[in-house]
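Reminder: ligand-aware prediction takes two inputs, not one.
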Amino acid sequence: MTGSFAVAGVTPRDVVTPATIDELAEIVRGLHADRKAFAFIGGGTELELGNAPRALDTVVRTSALDRVIEYAPEDQTITLEAGVTLAELDRVLGAHGQMLPIDVADRDQATVGGIIATGAYGRRRLRYGTVKDLIVGVGIVRPDGVRARGGGKVVKNVAGFDLPKLMVGALGTLGAIVTATLRVYPVPASVRAVVLHFDGAAGVASAVAVLVEQRFEPESVVVYNYGALVVTFAGTAGGVDAQIAAMLGAVAAASGCVNAAELSDLERESYEQRERAVRRDGDWRVRIVAPPAYPVTTLGSFAASPPLAVPVAYPLLGIALHAHAAADAPPERHLTDLRDNVSAQTRGTGAVIAHAIPAVARPHVDAWPKLPPAQFATMRAMKNNFDPHGLCNPGRFIGGL
Ligand SMILES: Cc1cc2nc3c(=O)[nH]c(=O)nc-3n(C[C@H](O)[C@H](O)[C@H](O)COP(=O)(O)OP(=O)(O)OC[C@H]3O[C@@H](n4cnc5c(N)ncnc54)[C@H](O)[C@@H]3O)c2cc1C
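Here is what comes back for the chain with flavin-adenine dinucleotide:
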């Protein structure tokens, strides 16, 4: 990672890269004693997510914490330091025919600590879940510099306060993730994908309904640009064969299906490129989430500005991703209009999270949806418990936590 280490547009005074976990804990103890504000950075591929921190004196990088601590292929678990990149993890697991089924694309940069802190997931969430479903144990450095551990080394002996799951998606606001134990999976023998083109979103919705009714078990279901449905199956060669044949028979008959074809690896790659683009490009990047009953694919986007990447949706997960250029209209209007639109179409059950916000709009908008007061009160109590002086990534998270 090069550049300014700016977190949601805020540039730190100092950047430090501890070589060991003890050194990181020592640094945090010093920052805490001096009441200085700090944040942790892994690969820096998701630093725009969330609100701008209220203060940021020091960025603590985890990139030098890059050891594989323990790997038990027979237990399908691996324990690593938080700075290990996903590319390195792929290499270690690949040698034993195993994988971590999290689709983060920028694997040379993104780190284990980063995928946990952001609660990362992609299209294969449908089959394997998010990091929350894969984390077994975690080691942290609290905002006061004290080390703590939660969870176990193997899947079956996890007991006590679920610290691992608490750290997932907390955006580094409760302390530094320094080690993690993750559950891994065998690489499937066969992975094949089919694309079905429809003449509109209604056709896509009816095809998705058939997939659910007929209990197909795809590894992932993705809609590109409202009209192209890509269904991927993984497993034994025979099993994948049978599912594809049956699915083509059932779904290709759905109304509005223009054509259906199996994708070559190269074609599959080109569709995955579009997923990367919607997570990387654009001044505005948003994630719309809604109960799968609602056609998230069509839940609209920023009407006021042109899309900069093909919209992507995971209809069975109730998630859609949009990327847009900053438009001329008053910056804050976009997000507010989109939120109103999503709320109206989902009877208030949908939400919009901003993964990137143009600098001009940041002072006027909140990256996070509002939470029900009781839920927020619990989160605030947790934050105050871990970080009573509000030094760790202050103001970055939901409700200004
Ligand atoms: C091309 C592209 C494709 C992407 N695809 C996906 C995708 O499919 N799915 C997805 O979910 N995301 C995706 N992302 C976003 C991003 O890659 C992931 O969120 C990734 O998990 C971030 O890891 P990182 O190490 O780069 O974290 P960073 O960007 O360094 O940090 C992200 C946040 O986590 C916190 N953090 C990082 N490390 C730690 C730590 N050790 N302890 C405590 N807090 C920490 C930071 O404070 C920061 O708030 C993509 C990004 C790009 C650029």
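The mean pLDDT is 91. The first strand starts at residue 14 and ends at 16. We will return to this case in the review session.
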